[in-house]
Amino acid sequence: MTPLGAWAASDPDALIFFFGGLALEECRLFCDLGSGDGTAVCCAALFTRAVGIEADLELCREAAAHARALHLVPPPHFVCADYSLLRPHHADCLYLYPDKPPSGLHHLVPPGWSGRLLIYGPHFPPEGFRCEKVLRWNRESLHVYRRLAHTGK
Description:
The chain has helices at 12-21, 39-44, 57-70, 105-108; strands at 30-33, 50-54, 77-80, 93-96, 116-120, 129-137, 140-147. By secondary structure, it is of the alpha/beta class.
Protein backbone atom coordinates (compact mmCIF):
# COMPACT_ATOMS: atom_id res chain seq x y z
CA MET A 1 0.00 0.00 0.00
CA THR A 2 1.04 3.58 -0.65
CA PRO A 3 -0.42 6.75 0.89
CA LEU A 4 -2.82 6.95 -2.09
CA GLY A 5 -3.71 3.30 -2.73
CA ALA A 6 -2.48 -0.15 -3.63
CA TRP A 7 0.66 -0.64 -5.68
CA ALA A 8 1.44 -3.38 -8.21
CA ALA A 9 4.23 -3.74 -10.77
CA SER A 10 3.67 -3.90 -14.49
CA ASP A 11 5.23 -6.88 -16.29
CA PRO A 12 8.53 -5.62 -17.81
CA ASP A 13 8.41 -8.09 -20.72
CA ALA A 14 4.91 -6.88 -21.59
CA LEU A 15 6.00 -3.25 -21.29
CA ILE A 16 8.93 -3.72 -23.67
CA PHE A 17 6.56 -5.37 -26.16
CA PHE A 18 3.95 -2.62 -25.78
CA PHE A 19 6.40 0.29 -25.93
CA GLY A 20 8.13 -1.15 -28.99
CA GLY A 21 4.76 -1.53 -30.72
CA LEU A 22 3.84 2.06 -29.94
CA ALA A 23 7.04 3.58 -31.34
CA LEU A 24 7.64 5.16 -27.94
CA GLU A 25 10.95 6.56 -29.22
CA GLU A 26 8.87 9.18 -31.07
CA CYS A 27 7.62 10.61 -27.75
CA ARG A 28 9.45 13.57 -26.26
CA LEU A 29 8.58 12.69 -22.65
CA PHE A 30 7.00 9.64 -21.00
CA CYS A 31 5.49 10.23 -17.56
CA ASP A 32 4.32 7.41 -15.27
CA LEU A 33 1.58 8.60 -12.92
CA GLY A 34 2.12 6.58 -9.76
CA SER A 35 5.40 4.99 -10.79
CA GLY A 36 5.84 2.57 -7.88
CA ASP A 37 9.22 0.83 -8.04
CA GLY A 38 10.02 2.45 -11.41
CA THR A 39 9.57 -0.63 -13.61
CA ALA A 40 7.54 1.16 -16.31
CA VAL A 41 9.76 4.26 -16.19
CA CYS A 42 12.94 2.20 -16.58
CA CYS A 43 11.42 0.26 -19.49
CA ALA A 44 10.27 3.51 -21.15
CA ALA A 45 13.76 4.99 -20.66
CA LEU A 46 15.04 2.40 -23.13
CA PHE A 47 12.99 4.24 -25.79
CA THR A 48 12.67 7.88 -24.71
CA ARG A 49 13.16 10.40 -21.90
CA ALA A 50 11.14 9.17 -18.91
CA VAL A 51 9.96 10.45 -15.54
CA GLY A 52 7.99 8.81 -12.76
CA ILE A 53 5.76 10.49 -10.20
CA GLU A 54 5.16 8.53 -6.99
CA ALA A 55 3.60 9.60 -3.68
CA ASP A 56 5.41 7.00 -1.55
CA LEU A 57 8.91 8.16 -0.56
CA GLU A 58 10.28 4.64 -0.10
CA LEU A 59 9.06 3.57 -3.54
CA CYS A 60 10.65 6.71 -5.04
CA ARG A 61 13.96 5.78 -3.45
CA GLU A 62 13.64 2.18 -4.63
CA ALA A 63 12.84 3.32 -8.18
CA ALA A 64 15.85 5.65 -8.29
CA ALA A 65 18.09 2.84 -7.03
CA HIS A 66 16.76 0.48 -9.73
CA ALA A 67 17.42 3.08 -12.41
CA ARG A 68 20.98 3.69 -11.15
CA ALA A 69 21.68 -0.06 -11.12
CA LEU A 70 20.56 -0.32 -14.75
CA HIS A 71 22.89 2.54 -15.87
CA LEU A 72 20.22 3.93 -18.20
CA VAL A 73 21.31 6.81 -20.44
CA PRO A 74 19.78 9.25 -20.16
CA PRO A 75 18.73 8.24 -16.67
CA PRO A 76 15.04 8.45 -15.80
CA HIS A 77 13.98 10.96 -13.20
CA PHE A 78 11.65 10.32 -10.24
CA VAL A 79 9.52 12.90 -8.44
CA CYS A 80 8.08 12.13 -5.02
CA ALA A 81 4.64 13.75 -5.21
CA ASP A 82 0.94 13.10 -5.69
CA TYR A 83 0.50 13.23 -9.48
CA SER A 84 -3.07 14.51 -9.10
CA LEU A 85 -1.66 17.76 -7.72
CA LEU A 86 0.65 18.29 -10.71
CA ARG A 87 0.01 19.24 -14.32
CA PRO A 88 1.94 16.70 -16.42
CA HIS A 89 0.59 18.02 -19.74
CA HIS A 90 4.15 18.79 -20.89
CA ALA A 91 4.57 15.01 -21.33
CA ASP A 92 3.26 13.66 -24.61
CA CYS A 93 2.83 10.16 -23.19
CA LEU A 94 1.22 9.49 -19.81
CA TYR A 95 1.16 6.01 -18.29
CA LEU A 96 -0.97 4.63 -15.49
CA TYR A 97 -1.51 1.24 -13.87
CA PRO A 98 -4.65 2.09 -11.90
CA ASP A 99 -5.72 0.32 -8.71
CA LYS A 100 -9.07 2.12 -8.81
CA PRO A 101 -11.00 4.18 -11.40
CA PRO A 102 -8.69 7.06 -12.36
CA SER A 103 -10.80 10.10 -11.51
CA GLY A 104 -9.77 13.54 -12.64
CA LEU A 105 -7.28 12.57 -15.35
CA HIS A 106 -9.11 14.84 -17.79
CA HIS A 107 -8.25 17.74 -15.45
CA LEU A 108 -4.51 16.98 -15.62
CA VAL A 109 -4.25 17.78 -19.32
CA PRO A 110 -6.02 20.49 -21.34
CA PRO A 111 -8.70 19.57 -23.91
CA GLY A 112 -6.26 20.27 -26.78
CA TRP A 113 -3.56 17.94 -25.39
CA SER A 114 -2.47 15.73 -28.29
CA GLY A 115 -0.53 13.13 -26.33
CA ARG A 116 -1.39 9.54 -25.51
CA LEU A 117 -2.61 8.12 -22.23
CA LEU A 118 -1.53 4.51 -21.73
CA ILE A 119 -3.49 2.45 -19.22
CA TYR A 120 -2.12 -0.95 -18.22
CA GLY A 121 -4.92 -3.49 -18.00
CA PRO A 122 -8.58 -3.30 -19.01
CA HIS A 123 -9.98 -2.40 -15.64
CA PHE A 124 -10.81 1.28 -15.56
CA PRO A 125 -11.47 3.39 -18.68
CA PRO A 126 -10.76 7.07 -17.94
CA GLU A 127 -13.37 9.79 -18.21
CA GLY A 128 -12.71 12.38 -20.92
CA PHE A 129 -10.66 10.07 -23.17
CA ARG A 130 -11.44 7.68 -26.02
CA CYS A 131 -9.70 4.35 -26.54
CA GLU A 132 -7.96 4.25 -29.89
CA LYS A 133 -6.26 0.84 -29.63
CA VAL A 134 -5.61 -2.11 -27.37
CA LEU A 135 -2.34 -4.03 -27.37
CA ARG A 136 -2.15 -7.55 -25.92
CA TRP A 137 0.77 -9.66 -24.74
CA ASN A 138 -0.09 -13.02 -23.18
CA ARG A 139 -2.65 -12.13 -20.48
CA GLU A 140 -1.57 -8.49 -20.26
CA SER A 141 -3.13 -5.56 -22.10
CA LEU A 142 -2.39 -1.91 -22.66
CA HIS A 143 -5.11 0.52 -23.71
CA VAL A 144 -4.10 3.62 -25.66
CA TYR A 145 -6.34 6.65 -25.13
CA ARG A 146 -6.56 10.13 -26.63
CA ARG A 147 -7.99 13.17 -24.89
CA LEU A 148 -11.47 14.19 -26.05
CA ALA A 149 -11.65 17.74 -27.32
CA HIS A 150 -14.64 18.57 -25.09
CA THR A 151 -15.67 16.56 -22.07
CA GLY A 152 -18.64 18.64 -21.07
CA LYS A 153 -17.03 19.21 -17.68
